[in-house]
Here is the input.
Amino acid sequence: MPKAIPDGYNTVSPYLAVDGAEQAIAFYEKAFGAKERGRMDGPDGKIAHAELQIGDSVVMLSDPFPQASTKTPKELGGTSVNIFIYVEDTDAAYKQAVDAGATSLMEPDDMFWGDRFSSVQDPFGHTWTIATHI
Here is the structure.
């Protein structure tokens, strides 16, 4: 009997619609150390589905398609989702993301709830929170 949750996946995995999925994959590799696990090409050179490994989690993404239920931040005029990632060193991860082309939304700072916390927006409109529990 197959496993309900396949090996290599967690219970929750975000799926992003991204204008320019090919460029987004390159950005996420540089900014967050993502490793591409696989992809399916779609029509007109677009990416129909790709999976990236970031730490112990999978992030899925694709170029936008009219029949898809997910919309890009550009289509929405913003985003309704914040992708929260825990890392070993918030300051280093924040700098790496900004150096890769992310826009700083909040520089690293110690929060009252016990996290060193920062936030960036990627070039595709998605917001990422980067934190280390201290």
The chain has a mean pLDDT of 94. The helical segments are 21-32, 73-76, 90-100. DSSP finds three helices and eight strands in the chain. The first strand starts at residue 15 and ends at 17.
